[in-house]
Amino acid sequence: MITSTSQKQEFYRALVEKDPAYDGIFFAGIKTTGIFCHATCTARKPKFENCDFFLSAEEALLAGFRPCKICRPLSFPHTIPEEVQMLVREVERNPEKRWQEADFSKLGLHSATARRKFKTIYGMTFVQYARARRMGMAFKEIMEGSRVIDQQLSLGYESSSGFNDAFTKIMGNPAKKADIRVVNAHFISTPIGRMLSLSDENYLYLLEFVDRRGLEREIEKLRQKHNFRIIHGQNSINQELERQLGRYFQKEPIDFSIPLYMDGSAFQKQVWAILASIPAGTTLSYRDIARELGNKDKVRAVGNANGANQIAILIPCHRVIKTDGELGGYGGGIQRKKYLLELERQAVKA
Ligand SMILES: [Zn+2]
């Protein structure tokens, strides 16, 4: 989401003037209606304070906005094949659905063709779209449902298996266990995008950029394993986390002191322990870590363990690069990895 006021004002002007030069450059989320639009949308223009601006459609979806039916902001140019429109409609009708091959043929669509057209038009895969929409709805629901749930909690629903959070409503019940554990979702803005933290008063369980590939799977695993119910809210852990992250992004040298819940195999935990020992401003290669573990053939396994880390920044998986010095992958995207490494180099020098 764009936070710079001057940038917002520029985009707002383009929105009001329906400036076609801005189609596809930004997406305007309208808070009063919950939809997002292209600059040139012919619908009545909202007030400035009711607009959020995004640089990608995926971001707008993740913020809980749905595509406008008038300007169809996901299409650029404005002609969309019928099968693609059908897929978007189906997602709106049934957002929690996980798509299988058979679902395409049920709609009379040839899966590969429909997927290819979707990708061409929207710049993201259909699965990515459906997931972003689903997650966005859950996030929004978390934010808006907090008051209702606070009430439920104060009435003593905490231990009741009938207690349902946004994820349960949108993605189904994780498990039929009696004991649920309530954790707080808290969103933290950073210069490189919004992050989601999951924590209770004891531990931080997850910290990820909201558009991270695979985030939904990570949350599902936590929900299955611990019977989490995720509600919006603050606690001592996420407040302290937000403070420390703020200082980190201000380039203050900082040792994070947040209790982390690390949920992984023995091997993964070994890898993560090594990650945690890499000083800021420096990097190790996957091979270095494999060697440190006494098995230089485990490079790929180290890479996988690195990717399985779900506490971004605090367990600094971004400090692991390829043996040849290339950056290698990053769950939050390569641009963020670059940014974080540069930030840390400057912080150490300062
Ligand atoms: Zn519109």
What features would you describe in this structure?
The protein has 350 residues and is α/β, with parallel strands linked by helices. It folds into four domains: 1-77, DNA Methylphosphotriester Repair Domain (3-Layer(aba) Sandwich), CATH 3.40.10; 79-123; 132-249, no CATH class; 266-349, Arc Repressor Mutant, subunit A (Orthogonal Bundle). It is 44% helix and 13% strand. The chain is built from 13 helices and ten strands. The protein has helices at residues 5-16, 57-62, 82-93, 101-106, 111-122, 126-154, 166-171, 215-226, 236-249, 266-277, 286-292, 299-308, 334-349; strands spanning 27-30, 35-37, 51-54, 66-67, 181-190, 193-199, 204-209, 228-232, 284-285, 320-321. The protein has a four-stranded mixed sheet. The protein has a four-stranded mixed sheet with strand order 7-6-5-8. The chain has a two-stranded parallel ribbon with strand order 9-10. Strand 6 and strand 7 form a beta hairpin. Helix 11 (286-292) packs across helix 12 (299-308). It is globular. The model is unreliable at 157-161 (pLDDT under 50). The chain binds zinc ion. Zinc ion binds at residues 37, 41, 43, 68, 70-71.
